[in-house]
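FW: tagging you since you asked about this chain on Friday. Here's the raw sequence from the shared folder, copied in full. Didn't touch anything.
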Amino acid sequence: MTADFTGNPFRLPPGVSQGPRFIDPPIDAVELNLTVGGRSIVPADIHHPVVVSHPNRFGVAEDVVRLAALPVPVYVRLDPMLIDQLPLPPSLNSLVEWSLRDPGPRQRAGWRTRLAADFLRRRLRQVPGLRFLSPVQAGGAVALLLSMPADEAVSQLRVAGASVLSSGPWEGCLVLHCGWWHTRAQLAGVAEAVGVILEHKVPAPIPPDRFDRLPNDLAWRQLDSIEAPQPEESV
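HL: got it, structure written out here
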């Protein structure tokens, strides 16, 4: 297995020729970086505009309703591939614009991204002892709590053929960014590598079911062959 799960660089899906436009926030805006349970902390005495990523760097969906109630302007960095799946309240300001004459290919690539992440989470749940950062992870990122130094985990996974990110040695999380281009074999391979490196166990087999719709040749199929995923609670 050789696969990149860092989420970089951004890849345009098939059928899309124009990429998103990223907007700079105001210079006095404050970036929300501190988190509890994977979600950003908003200071009680905030007086400046704030900037938040949604989903954030852990792949956790922020509470946009709570953010919309803040008394200051809020600027949101959306994951471009999930711009169709994560609508924002009107009072929040998106820092990503992506107008397309036909948004269909982008929408299907976004669903495919979520299918890939759902499949990876299902496989990782079969590793005894492995813990997720939050039950409300959304989009294409999967964040795991580490029982070993983050740099060591990243290095060992790189040797195994998977490039991943750590959230920082002080936070003790491993973050895997799934994309529309990842195949079932790559996702299953990184799940096995993570299980062996972090817990010295391989994922237990799970029987296929009606929610398991990730094709073996995921990265090479036409985008309209991928069905929309069911909510994660159903898988």
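FW: Residues 104-124 form the longest helix (21 residues).
HL: agreed, and Residues 185 and 213 are 14 Å apart (CA to CA).
FW: great, closing this out.
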